[in-house]
Structures are given as C-alpha cells and as structure tokens.
Amino acid sequence: EVQLVETGGGLVQPGRSLKLSCVASGFTFNNYWMSWTRQAPGKGLEWVASITNSGGSTYYPDSVKGRFTISRDNAQNTLYLQMNSLRSEDTATYYCTRATTVAFDYWGQGVMVTVSS
Amino acid sequence: DIQMTQSPASLSASLGETVTIECLASEDIYSNLAWYQQKPGKSPQLLIYYANSLNDGVPSRFSGSGSGTQYSLKINSLQSEDVSIYFCQQNYDSPPTFGSGTKLEIK
C-alpha cells in the first residue's frame, strides 16, 4: 500500500523558514517524480514544486521560485520542501504527492503551515 | 499558464440522480486532464486520468469524457458517499493547473 506521511508543519512568523518532510512507503521511491501541492484554507489546489526521480531537476511556479527548494533522499525514501522567506499567502495545507505523467496519483494526509505574526 | 474554468461551483442533487461537472481549458490540452475527489476533511484522491481512464478502485458510476478544451465528469446513481469537492487538473503543460472545484451536496 502506497503511503505518504508529511511532517514539519506549524506556525511560523513572516520572513522565517520551515522545512517539510514526507516519508514514502509501499512503492519504489526512486522510480517516481514527486511533488508538493498546497491548498489554502477553504480554497483550491496549487502545485508548488516537482522533482525528478533522480533529484537532478526541479521545477517551481513563479509564486515560490527562489524561496522554496524541493529535494529528496532516495536512500531514506524521503521528500523535502525547504520554505524560506515565508509570507502570509503561503498559509496552506501542504500535500506530498506522487507524480506520474498523467496525474498526481497518490496524496499524503497533508500538513498545515500557518504564516502569521 | 493554462487556465482551468470549472462549473458549477456548487451542486445539489438527490440520491440516485446523475450529475455532470464541466471543466474548460484556456487552450487545447489534448486529453491530459485528471479529476480528483476530496471528501470532507480528507486529502484529494485521483478519480480519472487522461480524461476518461478510471483509476483503480474507483466505482464505475464515475466517468470522464471530453477532448480539446472541454471536459466533463459524470456521476451516475449518486450515493451519499459522493459528497465531496471535485477538482479538474491539466497535465499537458507546466505549471500543472487546477480548476477551482465543484462542491457536491445531497438534497
């Protein structure tokens, strides 16, 4: 059974940093691209970052480019999201997602990040 | 970025009815369209990919169709467990983008 378990969320002040982790199990982690997708309270879904299966390439939307960094440790089956210079608009539930060429086929339970003073 | 316009924003239907949710892309996405179901308080789950391919374990009362810029999700014989928010998502071009969601309730 595929499982994605996120940790690391919490309350953080604007301008500060936070690092999310996602431990994957139930599939061969290094065969898949992985992504982070977020959902602001009561809002829709926004893709945040993707990383290739080797970790050699990363992709971001303009809204987080230069502030967020996605990375992975294939030996530990773990995906990360380093978030710097956080803003109030980054407040959301962050989901770790397995990415295929056709869809995000598995989602974690999500972790809440609140950016507020 | 490709814009995904989803309609209606909310929908109320009776048990056993058939409902349809629409998704319009701002340009041709060549059937690279997925549908997700988000039950209350839960994370999204993949229902349909490539416009009309049912994901494993998804009941056959769900179906997807469409091409070009216009796509739809149909739910036959509505059940109480179908109460959810449904999102479409294009996977044709980066960044992947989502529709704003359709909230489905039971009358």
Structural class of chain B, by secondary structure, is mainly beta
Strand portion of chain A:
over 45%
User: How many strands, what sense, and barrel or not for the largest sheet of chain B?
Assistant: 7 strands, mixed
Q: Give the low-confidence spans of chain A.
A: none
State the end-to-end distance of chain B. 36 Å
H/E series of chain A, N to C?
A: EEEEEEEEEEE
Radius of gyration of chain A: 13 Å
What do the pLDDT scores of chain B average to? 97
Strand content of chain B: over 45%
Give a structural overview.
The complex is a heterodimer of chains A (117) and B (107). By secondary structure, chain A is mainly β. Chain A is built from no helices and eleven strands. In chain A, 0% of the residues lie in helices and 52% in strands. In chain A, the strands form two sheets. In chain A, strands 2, 4, 5, 6, 9, 10 and 11 form a seven-stranded mixed sheet that branches. Chain A has a four-stranded antiparallel sheet with strand order 1-3-8-7, with no helix packed on it. The termini of chain A are far apart. Chain B contains no helices and eleven strands. In chain B, strands 2, 4, 5, 6, 9, 10 and 11 form a seven-stranded mixed sheet that branches. Chain B has a four-stranded antiparallel sheet with strand order 1-3-8-7, with no helix packed on it. Chain B is globular. The N and C termini of chain B lie far apart (36 Å). At the A-B interface, β5 and β10 of A face β5 and β10 of B.
